[in-house]
Backbone:
């Protein structure tokens, strides 16, 4: 499959391609302008396509199976003036309503030509949904679709960069490209990247969502990719830059300017295939990035350096490094897409698409700041190959059959060869105190994850009645998961050479699992004049195809003399298949032609990520090295019941507001439960025990740019309280002994951000110049205060970190030269160089200082600074640049397009 993909991508770059993603709809009614009577038999077509329809006896028409994009709609009938509507935008899963009043044709009168405006309120929107198209993405200072996602109401970014929608976990979001999932099955997070220049439209459903979507509890992000048209389009974009900050006391080497610190090249090309343009078209894109990052170390030591601290008064610290400044969070990324569309007939289209995504990166490790060559490197390589058959049975009915093969590969290691002699004995990582850096040594773990997913999906949509659009379908996912983990054994006594531990060792785990997922759904979109209802039902089936460990405890009912709470034995059982039924309901009620109320309710269920089902498959517990953790293949589905109530109100021709309140009750969440067998022996087990409760509201204001205006803007505010239970790690042992139910304490979740404010402002003249700003404010995330390892409060997450605020800006000047479209632009991220804190010291609540420096070990270290080369002060150790978000970054570039 890999060889096939490479060959396919090379050919695609030569010939190009296109792809139709999920579909939208245009519908409306046509009447006589004078008599107001309905007009039957009027033709409504989309210019440049084979899509169209004719009105029925009551003047109604509907055109389904429309790929998202911008179209010109032509309305014509014998005896009436032709109407042409330009700039009609169609979005996935939504209805664009176009009603017409046709005038009688008179000699000498020209056709009617009008410019459509995207509606500020959508009558068929029954839950919160944001749609961002390619034009909007291009105008913003953003690098990828995740950044666009974080600007939407209800979206919060955790300290580690993980994305949360309405208080849910980062694993509760479904990411799809053209309707096909790209989630990583191991963790149910985003598994593939897609270049910004390949995106036609991105839809973010942050509330309840239709029965069509499953395996998600918080939101759905659906990306529809661009497709080639009847005209050739292409663009080459190049830019580069560096971080420029006055924070050199925190970010080492930040004052050294490298114009090529972060270089990006983007390319796209699309259009009709030469000589075959009527039946074959193409679109292809590429994005390459080389980023040295903003976190640096110094190569004072090599991994082979062996320090000696046996004499407390005479530390021996070798320094064999070359003292070079080394990037410690660099990355290289390549993303390319290639898509073909064969128009077999006016009603049949075959799509073939490919996506290839590869990245290499390193993560900053503060302990290795002066031994930077000892840290892991990470590699991702992913590809997706898809085939789609789309057949319009009529203007009102069409079906899609999709087949997709996804491969996702992850590697973590320092040296690719596990027997590489450069792996160092574990003693090299010794430190005289916890206030010093590593003076040598290597990270010795190897992790290999491979997932292969074969997906078959069938959907049929039919406008069975002018008021009812029925959609039903099924999906089958066949996964193959391969996982390998081991730690290279090497020391100065037993393992004198790098050694891979035996599979029976707790330092070596591997498994292959083939879970099966099946789902089927049906939904009806009922569009009445005074009400729109989305009603659906979904069924999901999951078979983990694995065994799980059951623990048998004393006392034995047949022998009451045996002491209680003693682990007697473990049994291995086959996990049972799981079944889920999820009802969905959404209602939209127009109160005026500019005001719409909506209510939605639904059950949303998903299985926990596979990695927690299959961890430690050999149930290695006999040695009890550390605290072993057991996966649980018999985990139940997690469940969310969500409610939402909202109001859309258009205030003026170019201004609208959207207010939404939401509530989520989350049950059977994944939790890590600690069970104490004895005072010395403890193990962890994944169980369905966590509970969550999320409530809040969002306010979104949209000011669009009308023709002749300079300003467009958005403003989104979210108030949210996300709470969950706080299980005591030893509670299970105590409750088992006493026979009582565990007591639940609600605490703020790690990603609970009470206040979130996002804004964008775009000022400019289309095709001339544009100045855009993105501003974000987030109140502090919670943390648990400690002093000398003692919790100050009884409950976790009782205090708040400092708030975060950032402004990004982009200026672009466009002009034409030699028949091409040129642009020069500059992007500035974190314009005011704000020092935003990602993590804090739990004894002070800030990243800037800690009380630990004043304690004894810090004094011990500081007395050797300047006396022993290679020993750095406790101030250096506690100045941790990764505790902060990136400083200011400036990028300059140009583009050439046609």
Residues:
């Amino acid at each position: 499959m890999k060889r096939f993909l490479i060959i396919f991508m090379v050919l695609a770059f030569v010939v190009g391609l296109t792809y139709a993603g999920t579909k939208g709809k245009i519908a409306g009614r046509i009447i006589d302008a004078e008599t107001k009577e309905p007009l039957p038999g009027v033709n409504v077509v989309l210019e440049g396509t084979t899509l169209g329809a004719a009105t029925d006896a009551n003047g109604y028409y509907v055109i389904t199976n429309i790929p998202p994009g911008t179209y010109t709609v032509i309305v014509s009938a014998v005896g009436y003036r032709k109407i042409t509507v330009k700039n009609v935008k169609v979005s996935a899963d939504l209805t664009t309503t176009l009603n017409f009043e046709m005038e009688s044709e008179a000699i000498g009168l020209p056709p009617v030509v009008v410019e459509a405006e995207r509606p500020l309120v959508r009558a068929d929107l029954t839950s919160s949904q944001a749609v961002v198209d390619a034009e909007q993405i291009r105008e913003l200072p953003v690098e990828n679709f995740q950044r666009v996602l974080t600007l939407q109401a209800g979206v919060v970014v955790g300290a580690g960069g993980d994305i949360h929608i309405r208080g849910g976990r980062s694993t509760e979001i479904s990411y799809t490209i053209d309707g096909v999932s790209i989630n990583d099955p191991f963790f149910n997070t985003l598994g593939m990247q897609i270049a910004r220049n390949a995106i036609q439209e991105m839809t973010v459903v942050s509330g309840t969502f239709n029965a069509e979507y499953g395996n998600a509890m918080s939101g759905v992000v659906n990306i529809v990719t661009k497709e080639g048209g009847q005209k050739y389009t292409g663009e080459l974009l190049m830019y580069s830059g560096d971080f420029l900050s006055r924070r050199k006391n925190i970010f080492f080497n930040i004052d050294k300017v490298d114009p090529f610190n972060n270089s990006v090249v983007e390319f796209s090309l699309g259009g009709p295939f030469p000589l075959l343009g009527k039946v074959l078209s193409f679109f292809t894109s590429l994005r390459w990035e080389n980023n040295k990052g903003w976190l640096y170390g110094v190569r004072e030591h090599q991994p082979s350096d062996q320090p000696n601290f046996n004499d407390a008064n005479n530390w021996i610290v070798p320094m064999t490094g070359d003292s070079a400044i080394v990037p410690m969070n660099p990355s290289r990324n390549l993303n390319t897409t290639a898509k073909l569309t064969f128009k077999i007939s006016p009603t049949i289209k075959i799509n073939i698409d490919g996506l290839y995504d590869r990245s290499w990166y390193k993560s900053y490790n503060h302990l290795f700041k002066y031994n930077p060559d000892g840290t892991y490197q990470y590699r991702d390589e992913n590809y997706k190959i898809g085939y789609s058959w789309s057949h319009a049975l009529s203007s009102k009915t069409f079906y899609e059959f999709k087949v997709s093969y996804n491969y996702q590969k992850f590697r973590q290691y320092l040296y690719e060869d596990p027997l590489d002699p450069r792996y160092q004995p574990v003693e090299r990582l010794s430190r005289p105190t916890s206030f010093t850096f590593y003076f040598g040594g290597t990270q010795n773990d190897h992790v290999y994850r491979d997932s292969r997913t074969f997906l078959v999906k069938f959907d049929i949509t039919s406008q069975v009645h002018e008021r009812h659009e029925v959609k039903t379908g099924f999906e089958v996912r066949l996964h193959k998961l391969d996982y390998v983990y081991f730690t290279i054994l090497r020391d100065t006594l037993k393992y004198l050479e790098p050694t891979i531990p035996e599979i029976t060792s707790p330092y070596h785990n591997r498994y292959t699992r083939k879970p099966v997922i099946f789902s089927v759904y049906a939904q009806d979109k009922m569009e009445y004049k005074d009400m729109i209802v989305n009603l659906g039902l979904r069924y999901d089936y999951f078979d983990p195809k694995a065994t799980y460990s059951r623990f048998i405890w004393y006392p034995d009912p047949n022998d009451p003399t045996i002491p209680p709470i003693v682990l007697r034995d473990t049994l291995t059982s086959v996990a049972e298949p799981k079944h889920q039924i999820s009802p969905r309901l959404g209602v939209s009620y127009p109160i005026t032609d500019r005001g719409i109320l909506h209510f939605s309710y639904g059950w949303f269920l998903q299985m926990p990520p596979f990695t927690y089902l299959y961890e430690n498959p050999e149930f290695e517990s006999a040695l009890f090295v550390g605290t072993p953790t057991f996966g649980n293949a018999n985990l139940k589905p997690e469940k969310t019941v969500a409610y939402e109530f909202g109001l859309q109100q258009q205030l003026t021709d170019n201004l609208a507001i959207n207010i939404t309140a939401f509530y989520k009750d989350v049950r059977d969440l994944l939790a890590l439960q600690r069970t104490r067998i004895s005072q010395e022996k403890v193990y962890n087990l994944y169980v369905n025990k966590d509970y969550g409760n999320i409530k809040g509201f969002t306010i979104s204001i949209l000011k669009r740019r009308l023709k002749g205006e300079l300003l467009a803007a958005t403003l989104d505010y979210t108030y949210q309280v996300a709470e969950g239970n706080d299980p005591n790690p030893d509670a299970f042992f105590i409750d088992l002994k006493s026979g009582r139910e565990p007591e639940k304490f609600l605490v703020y979740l790690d990603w609970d951000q009470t206040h979130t404010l996002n804004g964008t402002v775009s000022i400019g003249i289309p095709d001339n110049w544009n100045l855009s700003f993105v501003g974000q404010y987030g109140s502090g995330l919670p943390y648990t205060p400690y002093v000398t390892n003692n919790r100050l409060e009884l409950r976790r997450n009782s205090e708040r970190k400092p708030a975060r605020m950032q402004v990004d800006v982009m200026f672009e000047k466009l002009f034409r030269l030699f028949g091409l479209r040129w642009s020069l632009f500059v992007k500035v991220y974190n314009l005011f160089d704000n020092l935003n804190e990602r993590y804090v010291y739990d004894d002070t609540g800030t990243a800037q200082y800690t009380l630990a420096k004043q304690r004894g070990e810090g004094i011990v270290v500081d007395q050797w600074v300047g006396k022993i080369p290679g020993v750095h002060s406790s101030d250096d150790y506690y100045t941790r640049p990764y505790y902060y978000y990136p400083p200011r970054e400036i990028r300059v570039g140009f583009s050439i397009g046609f």
